[in-house]
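Quick start: what a row looks like.
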Amino acid sequence: MALHLAKSGLGEAAFSKYCNYSKKFYDEKDLKKLLINFGNERGYGSRPENKGVLFPTSDDYVNFCVEHYPELSEFFHVPNMKGKNFADAIDKRKILEIAKENEIDAPQAWDLQEIIANKPDFDGEVILKARNSLDKKNLVRVKHYSSFDKLLKDIEKYNSNICSYVVEEFIKASIENYFQMDTYLTTKGEVIIGGIQKRDLVMYNRDGDVIEIAVNYISGEMPEIEKRIEPLVRSLDYNFPINFEFFEREGTDLLFEANCRTGTNVLSSTLTGLNIPAILYFDKVGKDYSHLLNKKRKVGHNLVLEDEVIWYLGHNGFSLKNLLCIFKGSQGMWLYKQPDKLPGLIRIGDMVQDILFGQ
């Protein structure tokens, strides 16, 4: 089932040949009502093997599951954090503190009000971040500033909601040293890790906001960081996947972002041999998932998300040169040995429409 809570159209997954039912909702109450009715009709109950699995694909859906956990958990396996407060895990500063407690390096970070009261002795570039990506009052998600002074000149924009932001040290490192991984702590206590090396073409618009296009390079196993990330995953004791993002700077891996869901890279990870959504489902309903762990990873593939092509062309202009810049040595995510063609064709159609009509 593909359930979409948004004012926009249905996501491409709704058109998959593997999807039996899809519906768009404008209100969370209607979505919750459908899920509870569906659970009742299917006879879902208290036994793990007799429940459905809700797989949130964005922060909004994670928040929906957490807010309605008591009702939804009667019929479904739902995200839940036992070891740490969920609010701490999605707090962009606190998650860095939790990481450091688990001997994971992270950049310096400050509360915005802390900087206003007493500007720290730091003269490098900084990133302004929404403290909680679920807070709808935030004016920006990420904004780059060359210094604290530049940020403070812009401070009036954020005064009305000043507690909703954190400031983080900007990590100066090659974009080729950026990587992210999805992790999952199974009901058996096993930590599943998928490592992805991600090369980005990163740009800034005139307002300093980050615009990026991702080219995912499949790197296979990363034993050193996997060994260090495992205790952090266990300490969070989260029953669904977590996505971690890193930069390697001068031999040190710095964690700068964590989200209580899979990242977009779960698509490339799945296509190249590690299907975390399937592992999650088999694990939750008490079935053996070992056959999904023994597949040989297909490393060395570059995969590009087609919708990010729109962003790139929108900021750099439509030209053959810019298209070649994106697809040189890469393959479209939805075209990569994809037996389920319709979602990919719809995505490409939307991309062409957006490029031609500027929507």
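That is the whole record. The longest helix spans residues 341-357. Residues 158 and 322 are 35 Å apart (CA to CA).
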